[in-house]
Amino acid sequence: MDGSTYEFGTPMGRERKTNDHDVTLRGRKQLDITGVKQVDSFDSEEFLLETVQGYLSVRGENLHMKNLNVEQGNVSIEGKIHDLIYVDQNQQGKSKGLFGKLFK
């Protein structure tokens, strides 16, 4: 048995690898993400996901969830993907400052 078959928070003799997080984008149409802790919010234009390596915002058009496996932390999203942005809480002040400088 490998660590990917365990439920979150249930090490069962082994600790789960906390940094297993991959993003696979196919043709800007299909996005597969591993290492997802939870889906915070979503609509047809934006998904906000909490991953093991921070919050990930996925923006686009006609987005919908094709697959969700909470136990394994896998999410599949289909639609036209415009951008993927990691939002780190400790970096928000810096990014606002940068945007503030750009849009004066």
Automatic annotation (TrEMBL):
Domain of life: Bacteria
Biased segments, Basic and acidic residues type: 13-23
Gene3D superfamilies tied to this protein: 2.60.40.2000
One example of a Gene Ontology biological process annotation: sporulation resulting in formation of a cellular spore
Region spans: Disordered: 1-23
NCBIfam families: spore_yabP
Name of this chain's protein: Sporulation protein YabP
Species in which this protein is naturally found: Shouchella clausii (strain KSM-K16) (Alkalihalobacillus clausii)
